[in-house]
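Morning, I've got a small favour to ask if you have a moment. It would help a lot if you went through both lines with me. Thanks so much in advance, here it is.

***
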Amino acid sequence: MKRSTVLAVLAVLVVTLVIGLAGIFFPASPKETLKVVITGKEWLNTEFGRDRLELKGKNTLVVFWNASDINSLKTVKKLNEWKAQYGGLLQIAGIHCPEFEFEKEKKNIVRLVEELKIKWPVLLDNDGALKKIFKNTELPALYLINSSGKTVYTHKGDGDYEISEAEFQAAVKVMEPNATLPKLKKPEIAGVCFIITPDLYTGSIKGLPANKGGFIAEKLHDYKFNAEIPPDAFALKGKFKALKEYVESETPGSGLFLNFAATEVNIVADSVLNGDTMLEVLLDNKPVKPESRGRNLDGNNQVRLKYPGMYQLLKNTAKAEKGILSVKLVKGKCRLYAFRFYGCSE
């Protein structure tokens, strides 16, 4: 065999080897599955008996959200504004992802959808099937699916709305080049954001009180606590029963004490007695000032639990509040699930 022939064969072998290794280290991305329909058993805001939403031929924003998540509710508010602006040019599909068991009950989400004035279809993804299909791990999350069924844009978390709207308008222009669209607004000057307390859970699975020994799970226990509460932590005082998702009490005066920092504090709670439960909320053992009072806190620094959901206790639009927030049972029987915080001025 001639030397030139040998070199040619070796060159072919080297190229083949390089291509093979490239395929190992840089595998081709799998072809995206086109999404032409969203199916599910429980839909809100659709015709009775309907079990699917067609995506083909429309530009659709699919939003994964949760009823007791602050950022989800802010995103829902923005989507309501867009739906009012764009009308038939924008199809929205809301995928509600429950975290707590009460969020799997249809009546609780129906009430919130009505309260938020959501007019677009909402699928109750109680088994997480849609989350798996989209491989979604964050809430809220936006997926823009164009008229061909291809996902052309995604966004995780709230904010960056001007970017999401621009991406949507670009998709509309591909489908309808002559469409008249609202002028994109310049990005608003963002408020100051502070270092805040992360979300805290009060049930025995995800929560951990500062009390010595932690929870006494599944049993009614009289909790004692006389030490300082560490930052970003809570302690129980009085009689509570710690269950997987929440702590429960029917003893007036029993309370939860929270060392926090945030511009907004919400509690996820429920009344076992159908609206006849009252909580007293104090900040550093004093009434909450009017300028920092949350929308669910009345002039007597009390909040009535009417249904399972999120209640706003404190909100300061200018700065972060810090201190010990106490939540005490005045009457009735309560279940306390979690605290949700926000940290930016508005």
